[in-house]
Specification:
Blueprint: H1 24-43, H2 47-59, H3 63-91, H4 93-112, H5 117-145, H6 149-180, H7 185-188, H8 190-204, E1 208-209, H9 218-237, H10 245-267, H11 275-279, H12 281-311, H13 316-322, H14 324-344, H15 346-364, H16 373-376, H17 378-400, H18 408-439, H19 446-478, H20 483-486, E2 497-498
Antiparallel strand pairs: 1-2
Helix pairs in contact: 1-5, 1-6, 1-8, 2-3, 2-6, 3-4, 3-5, 3-9, 3-18, 4-5, 4-8, 5-18, 6-12, 6-13, 6-14, 6-17, 9-10, 9-18, 12-17, 12-18, 12-19, 14-15, 14-17, 15-17, 15-19, 18-19
Length: about 500
């Protein structure tokens, strides 16, 4: 464990557990199961994007409801992740993982048979609730299964790559299902995945939990859930104007509740989010970068699907396939970044990766209504994929390095929550900017309407690029220390009870 002066000092909580970990081939099968879980969770953040035009037509969704089909999932997921992480720590990570998996499958089935926009939004919210149980449990299980060394770097590289590629895979799969089956299968497809992952989890994953006196911080849970919800809803209302009373009120209430949450966490004996997890300079920087990354992968990518289908006229399958080059770039770059990580450390990757991604988004912001995909979109997706791979490989590892075993669930929940809340806020901000720019255009015919849409999409991409530049600056300021201090050493073990 790093000393108190190191970049990753945590103030660990002692535990009487005997350290044991899954060994040999078994733990690589565990990695496969947990990575598949992460794929399902991330994929569902975007798989409905391609299906939204079809779902909007069939169910008569308003534009606001269309946005909330995406936001409901990300918001419920992000707002409940801290509580889900603590439930995983205290109740048992395997048990929490399996319950989350079952609930996620049932919510997906409900969404697949939804008969109204309200039912679909509720189903997406329920998916987020159970994902908030499943995801932190999976990441905490990964942390204790691979406690340190080269195997941990490999495991987190696989996990991070799946997390990064999952959003793009969701777009492709959503296009295939929408065009050849029905948009409802973008939700129903989760059911067979859940069944397989549940059975594999029962057979392969061993139980682990935090030992000691574990009490739930209910007041902390209430304030952070309501605070994040109010904040995201306030950003959503900003589409009608930043100066409106409702927008200002919800944003102010959200900030106030989050301040109260911090005060509660400083005083309670068993906090929902031990502040030692986030006040560490390096880990706090990693969390901020994750929030910005989430805004890009969840928020900005939604407008890419709209541009492909609405402006360029791609059918769902072609729109999904058109996003595949970004996935390919991530998959090709990730192994290279994995080999570089122990040699150069995470800092150069987290400084350079966002800048490369920002260059791709700036290029994408130059789209025109009559532009060509191969000239205006394809190069940008390749560059963006390269940059994102350089971020994904070290980010999850860095966000959890040096965390005491007692806090593994809370730390992994915070890592996921930052991604989802960042995506929710990013989507709300991008929607507001899109509406303000597109609404200011003079529309006289279908051609000018497409030009107005394109202008709105362009501002969303440019704003996302600015966000990635800020992420690079955050890495320069916060991600400091020798590479051996920033990454767990070979053979490092966490005192965690397994089995």
């Amino acid at each position: 464990m790093p000393s108190s002066g190191s970049p990753l000092a945590t103030g660990s909580v002692p535990t009487s557990s005997v350290p044991t970990t899954a060994s040999g081939r078994r733990r690589w099968w565990v990695l496969l199961v947990l990575a598949a879980t992460q794929l399902i969770v991330v994929l569902d953040g975007t798989i409905v994007n391609i299906a939204l035009p079809a779902a909007q037509t069939e169910l008569g969704l308003s534009d606001t409801q269309r946005q909330w089909v995406v936001t409901a999932y990300a918001l419920a997921f992000g707002a409940l992740l801290l509580l889900g992480g603590r439930i995983a720590d205290y109740w048992g990570r395997k048990r929490t993982y399996l319950v989350g998996m079952v609930g996620f499958g049932l919510a997906s089935a409900f969404g697949g048979i939804a008969q109204s926009g309200t039912e679909l939004i509720i189903a997406r919210g329920l998916q987020g609730v159970f994902a908030a149980l499943m995801a932190p449990a999976a990441l905490a299980l990964l942390t204790v299964t691979f406690p340190g060394g080269r195997d941990r770097n490999t495991a987190f590289a696989v996990f991070g790559t799946v997390a990064g590629a999952g959003a793009a895979v969701g777009l492709v799969l959503g296009g295939v299902l929408t065009e050849f089956a029905d948009w409802r299968w973008c939700l129903l497809v989760n059911v067979p995945f859940v069944i397989v992952a549940f059975v594999a989890g029962v057979l392969l994953v061993r139980e682990s939990r935090a030992e000691g006196d574990n009490r739930y911080d209910w007041w902390g849970a209430v304030t952070v859930i309501l605070g994040l919800g109010s904040l995201v809803y306030g950003f959503t209302l900003a589409e009608g104007g930043w100066g409106s009373l409702d927008t200002i009120a919800f944003l102010a209430i959200g900030v106030l509740l989050l301040v109260v949450f911090v005060l509660i966490e400083r005083r309670v004996a068993q906090p929902l989010l031990p502040l030692r997890i986030v006040v560490d300079r390096v880990r706090g920087g990693a969390f901020l970068i994750q929030a910005i990354t989430g805004s890009v992968m969840i928020g900005a990518m939604l407008y890419l699907t709209f541009h492909l289908q609405i402006v360029l006229g791609f059918p769902p399958l072609e729109a999904g396939l058109a996003s595949l080059p970004m996935t390919a770039a991530i998959m090709i770059t990730a192994p290279i970044a994995t080999r570089l990580l122990p040699a150069i450390g995470p800092r150069p990757l987290l400084i350079g990766g966002p800048l490369i991604g920002a260059a791709g988004l700036l290029y994408l912001s130059r789209i025109t209504a009559d532009g060509d995909y191969f000239v205006q979109v394809l190069p940008a997706l390749i560059v963006l994929g390269i940059g994102m791979a350089m971020v994904f490989v070290p980010l999850q590892n860095l966000a959890l390095a040096g965390v005491a075993p007692h806090d593994a669930g809370a730390a992994s929940a915070t890592a996921n929550a930052m991604m989802q809340i960042g995506g929710s806020i990013g989507l709300s901000v991008f929607t507001t900017l899109y509406a303000s720019v597109a609404g200011a255009q003079v529309v006289t015919d279908s051609a000018s309407q497409l030009a107005a849409f394109t202008a709105g999409y362009s501002i969303a991409f440019a704003s996302a690029a600015i966000g990635l530049v800020i992420a690079s600056i955050i890495a320069i300021v916060f991600i400091r220390g020798k590479k051996d201090e920033l990454l767990p050493p070979a053979g490092a073990e966490g005192a965690v009870h397994l089995g």
